[in-house]
Amino acid sequence: MSPPRSPTGSGHHHPKVLTDLSTDAFALCTRLLSFRDVSNLAMSSKSLRLLAYSDAVWFRLLQERWPNYCMSSGAGGARDEYLSRFTAMRQFKFCDPAIVHLWAMPVPPTQILLAKNEIWVDQGRHVIKVECSSDPHFANHRMFRAHNARITCMRLFPISETSFFRSEMQRDDTILATSSSDRTIRLWWKGSPQRCFKGHSGPVTVLADTLLGDCDSKFLVSGGEDSTVRLWSVGSGRMHGHPAVTYHGHEKSISFLSVARHKASLLVSLAKDSRVRVWDAMASSSSGSSSCVGMASVSGPPVGMQCYDSLCYIASGMTVTAIDLRTMKSVATISVHSPKTYSFEMLPSKWLLCTGGEDKAMLWDIRKSQAKPAPIAELGHTGPVKYLHMDSYKIVTAGPSDCCVNVWETDTGNLANALDLFNKLSFQNPTEKPVGFSAMAVDGYRLVTSCGDRGCVSVRDFSNCSIPISSSSCSKVGSKFWEANHCLDA
Question: Does 49 share its domain with 169?
């Protein structure tokens, strides 16, 4: 018996497609999809976008993400309400974050790392790992003791990129790398040191922000006061305690290391003498002397460095310089702060960079740097802006002499919130209220800070807030960055 022919006469069936479903049926089909899954589905086609933007889909997402949330009467729709609340939480525009004040640490931390529910804090020659549970007021901690001198740098890397990776259950684990003035580098996993790398003849000053190399050959990169850059094998091959390659060429201590984004084998190093060198790991000989493929210099003491595509942006002295790594020529220079720049962050996806100065931070559009460079916004402070975080939603700024952490909208430069982080701490002498910070770390919903003179670490989680600034008893934050210079009680 021959199969029935289709209405078009082609002999093929035309199955019912997803876009033929009703809105309610489509919402039922997406009940297991996350916020990102629905957003990706909406980009598949125009028909799917109309279905994926329906209130039936987004009301379910809204209720799952914030079960006790009630939509406002003037809301334009469930999707708009979800995105508005999502953005407001990412910008810390609430007065009731979950707050945890960790114990006062003996040494004020200078470095803090955030990774999922883990917080890593340096304590002189030790590291403290804090594990936060679902209860915002409960946290476990563990101290790692292995170095014999002060820790100088901490980095987190995916375990899947190292030879430690063995099973699918370990895929999401991370490796902590620490460098120290005791001339060693240590790798930590599962609460204990797994490897110790020795080879520098002086204190190790910095570790690269990412691992160098391709999937088969991964290297941890370090720089030291001995003016050398060293590569340590951590890939699929066997790890060794001695460096795989040593690069010589700098005359001063290494300040920054970054892997080029357009070629995985290229490494950029910046030393205290403001000299820039580019090394190609694929061209390395046993001595490393032939692998330097480019040199340049910048003006002033180095403050920060970040690579994007084939460009390397370097903040030093009073300028930010963009160097093309293919030609080693400067393609743009922005005069920023006088007399000194304290911090630097960049958001390549929006062509924005932010610099911290003596009494303010400045937001810059990279595309407008060729003509007469002028900042998009000036983000005021009471002292040097040494601590700076920047993402697609917010810019967070703080300093060693500030009483507040300020949060700004990335797109506009408007002040989103000003958090007085000391006013709810209890001290033996209330008249000796601490001022200033010694370290800061930020991710999507969390802010972690350490008090500059007391060593107290505080965690603020904005993921389940319910009291927006505009409808609370908090002092109102100005709608423009120049309209508010006071602190809020958060």
Answer: no
Q: How many domains does the chain have?
A: 2
Last residue of a domain, one of 279, 303, 335: 335
CA distance 449 to 469: 21
Percent of the chain whose predicted confidence (pLDDT) is above 90? 40
Can you name the residues that pair with 142 across neighbouring β-strands? 129
- Least confident window among 30-34, 119-123, 237-241: 237-241
CA distance 60 to 56: 7
DSSP state, residue 218: -
Contacting residues for 20 by C-beta, under 8 A, at least 6 apart: none
Amino acid (1-letter code) at residue 411 = D
Residue 11 lies in a domain: no
Same domain assignment for residues 225 and 330? yes
Would you place residue 64 in the very low, low, confident or very high pLDDT band (cuts 50, 70, 90)?
A: confident
What is the spatial distance between Cα 348 and Cα 120, in angstroms, rounded to a whole number?
A: 27
What is the DSSP secondary structure assignment for residue 109, as one 8-state letter?
-
The neighbour count for residue 441, using CB atoms within 10 Å, is 23
Q: Are residues 174 and 292 in the same domain?
A: yes
Residue 401: how many CA atoms within 13 Å on its side-chain side? Answer: 9
Q: What is the pLDDT of residue 440?
A: 94
CA gyration radius for the chain?
A: 26
Read off the DSSP letter of residue 9.
Answer: S
Q: Is the pLDDT of residue 426 over 80?
A: no
Residue 278 falls inside a structural domain: yes
What distance in Å separates the CA atoms of residue 258 and residue 212, rounded to the nearest whole number?
9
Q: What per-residue confidence (pLDDT) applies to 485?
A: 34
| Domain boundary pick from 320, 335, 350 | 335
Residue 236 in contact with residue 284, Cβ under 8 Å?
Answer: no
Residue 282 falls in which region: left (phi positive, over 0), alpha (psi -120 to 50) or beta = alpha
Domain that holds residue 26: 18-64
pLDDT of residue 488: 34
Confidence of residue 483 (pLDDT cuts 50, 70, 90): very low
Question: 125, 148 in Cβ contact below 8 A?
Answer: yes
**What pLDDT, on the 0 to 100 scale, is given for residue 266?**
93
Per-residue pLDDT, averaged over 71-89, amounts to 82
Specify if 24 maps to a domain.
yes
Q: Residue 486's pLDDT band (boundaries 50, 70, 90)?
A: very low
Do 52 and 165 sit in the same domain of this protein? no
The β-bridge relationship of strands 329-335 and 292-297 is: unpaired
Residue type, 147: H
Q: How far apart are CA 187 and CA 207, in angstroms?
A: 12
